[in-house]
Amino acid sequence: MGGVSFAEMSARERLAAVVDDSSFHEWLPPSERVMSPHLAQLGVPAAFDDGVAIGRATLGGRAIFVAAQEGEFMGGGVGEVHGAKLVGLLRRALRDRPDAVVVLAESGGVRLHEANAGLIAVSEVMRALLDVRAAGIATAILVGGANGCFGGMGIVARCADTVVMSDIARHAMSGPEVIESSHGAGEFDSRDRALVWRTTGGKHRWLTGDCDALVEDDPTAFRAAAIAALDVHRPMTLAALQQESALLQRRTEVDGENADAFELWTLLGVPDARSVPDLDADAVRARRPAALAALANGGA
C-alpha cells in the first residue's frame, strides 16, 4: 500500500490495513445501532457505532482484539457508549486471553457533550487496560490519525506496553487549542503548525522517549510495527516504574525553563536539532539520545 497515507484513512480503513486480510469480526457493528443516549437530547447528530469499531482479528496469524477510533465523528471524542465499548473489549480480553490488544487511537479526548460520562469512561478504560497489561497480555496503541491522540486518550496511550506513532502523528495531554484558550497565544500559538508538530508530534515523542516505535505515515509500516509489538510485555513492577520515573526525571533536569523543543532536543544530546523537522522517520530514529534509548528500552 505504498503511497497511501495512514492519517487520511477512516478508522475502518486503517483497521483493515493493519490486521490480516478479512480477519476482522466486529462486535456491536453499526447495524446494532448502539448509540449515545445523550447526543439526540442535545440535538447533536449521532453515529450508529458511536465513533469506534471493536472486535477480534488476526495479526500475523495471531489472535488479537482490536479497536479503531473514528476521528471524523466528533474528533474521536470518548463518550459513555464509546468508552463502554473499549472497556468491554478489554474486559473480554481478560477472559479470552488473545495474544494482544491493539488500539488504533484517534481522539481529541473526552466528548464535551457528555463530559462527566466521558471522564468516567476514560478512567475505566485506563483501569481495564492496566488490568490487561498486568495479566501479561501485550497492549499496543497506534497513533497515526489526522486528529492525533489527546486528552484522556493521550493518558490511555501511555498506559500501554507499546506506543507506535508516525512522524506526522501527534500525542499530548492537552491539545494546542486547549492550551491557547487557557493561557493565550503567547503561551502556545495553535496556528503555528511547525510549533505544534515539534511540541506534540511523533518525532518529538520519539526523541524524548514517549513512543516506542516511530514509523512513516504508511499503513504497511504501522502493520509491521504492530506485529513487532505482539511480543512486547513490560512488567508492571516497582523496578519498571522506577525506570520510567528516571526517564521523566532526566527530561525534567535538562529541560529547565526552556520553552521550545529545539532547546530540549539539543540539551538531551540530539545532534543538529534544528534539522529534525525536515528529516524522515529513519533519520530521526537514529538521533534518539543514547541515555533515553536505554531507559525507554528498560536499561539502566
Textual characterization of the structure:
The protein has a domain at 11-171 and 211-233: 2-enoyl-CoA Hydratase, Chain A, domain 1, CATH 3.90.226.10. With 300 residues, it is an alpha/beta fold. It starts with 10 loop residues before the first helix and ends with a helix. It is 41% helix and 13% strand. It has twelve helices and seven strands.
According to CATH, the fold-level topology of the domain at 11-171 and 211-233 is 2-enoyl-CoA Hydratase, Chain A, domain 1
Radius of gyration: 19 Å
Low-confidence stretches: none
Q: Mean pLDDT, rounded to whole units?
A: 90
Number of helices: 12
- The span between the termini is 39 Å
- Shape designation: globular
In short:
This protein has helices spanning 11-18, 80-96, 115-134, 151-158, 176-183, 193-200, 202-207, 219-229, 238-255, 261-268, 281-285, 290-296, and strands spanning 25-27, 52-59, 62-69, 100-105, 138-143, 162-166, 213-215. It has 300 residues and is an alpha/beta fold.
Topology:
Elements: H1 11-18, E1 25-27, E2 52-59, E3 62-69, H2 80-96, E4 100-105, H3 115-134, E5 138-143, H4 151-158, E6 162-166, H5 176-183, H6 193-200, H7 202-207, E7 213-215, H8 219-229, H9 238-255, H10 261-268, H11 281-285, H12 290-296
Parallel strand pairs: 3-4, 4-5, 5-6, 6-7
Antiparallel strand pairs: 1-2, 2-3
Helix pairs in contact: 2-3, 3-4
